[in-house]
Amino acid sequence: MYIFNELNEVNFESVVKFLEHYKNVSDNVFNVTTEAALELSTHIKEGLINAISEIHPDYDASLEERLERARETFRNSKSIFTTNYDLLLYWICLIDNTSSPCHNMKDLLWNSFQYGEDVNGLWDNDIGIYYLHGGLHIFPSSFSGVEKISTGSRHTLCEEIQNKIQNDHLPLFITEGTSENKLQMISSNNYLSHCFRELVKCPDQLVVHGHSLNLEFDEHIVKAIGKSYHKHNKSKIYISVFDFENRQDVLGSYAVSIREAIKSYFPQSTEFIFYNATTHPLAT
Fold first, then answer.
1. I need a labelling partner for 122 at 20 to 30 A (CA). Which of 45, 67, 200, 257 fits?
2. 158 belongs to a structural domain
3. pLDDT surpasses 80 at 86
């Protein structure tokens, strides 16, 4: 959209705040009515609501079955870091909270985010969930910096998000933009900064599934992972490559290009292990 390009901005909230501030100054200081700014702000919010409705899957029995399979896969993990801002992982956490006696998938967002650099709020058997780029269910909060939608049910979550947007509350999530843009937004929010620090602190070997590790858009993620490997002397990283036809030449080419692009961020001894993303349980 033109306004995003003119402001060199990719954050919905920042653009809407700019337009509303512009309208207030024009109306109250210069006594000039600027309905165009209000209409554009409304258009952005409506566009976001429509995108959620059109792109995001509905919660139904078929999806719940797939999410349950994903939950079983995730239960073998100690930590889960995601750059996806859709509701799929949050739905999995909600299923875990109702299906598991331990319900130990924790995102640190009970009433609000309240943990700092040295406290993560997790018990030994808990699985930490970290939304590195925010999420549709996470909203800025003047009290704690961030809060999540925790009312209602899995079936009404999209509707609740749309209602909050209509009432001038925009979710905290990072969509497009360069790696530098994304890192600036992460640094401006306590919760996102905490998630990012936890990625660097993570002592376990990582499985990177469904992420391109593109340096233009996500160099900050690659740097953080590389730092964690230097910090904890980890030896192996598992990275998915995607090809539905399972052509070994294509998979091999993808693997070589990814390894060559990111290897300088890792210790020289790191072993890069690539696998076909379609063979992972999360792809079924």
1. 67
2. no
3. yes
